[in-house]
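Title: Prediction job returns without error message
Component: structure pipeline
Severity: low
Priority: P3
Assignee: unassigned

Description:
Job completed but the reporter wants confirmation the result is attached to the right record. Sequence as submitted:
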Amino acid sequence: MNSKPNVLFLSEKNCARSQMAEALVRKYAGDRFNVLSAGLCPEPEIHPLTFKVMNEIGISLEGQRAKHAREYLAKIPPHYLIIAMDEEDRPRIFPGMQTRLHWPLEDPRSAAGDQKIEAFRRVRDQIHETVRHWLAEISNDTNIQHVAMR
């Protein structure tokens, strides 16, 4: 039986914000959690700029894919359900959740033209800081990796 707490990041499309958060928690928390992400209406694939901005800070999204929230309904109860989307879009409940958090993050896909890559970087950096603060807040374990972004 897996005794690690489940962390589920939920966003609308599961192609940017929740994917970044999933990868960052894996990097900093190691194997302390079973980290997952899903979308309410997922895209077929992770957005290419998500891969690009994560690679810029040395984090690979290898093995991650866009998933629908239905994949986890009644199968994997989240100890932490973290909503990584705008206020008006967020769900209020998820079966089996113990703690629900809301991280109001802009959707970087909505930026236009040359601003799009900067929007992805800005959201990545915001998620990076939020993940580090959240892990420090819940952790009694001083072994969580604290690595500065390049």
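Comment from assignee: result matches the submitted record. The longest strand covers residues 6-11.
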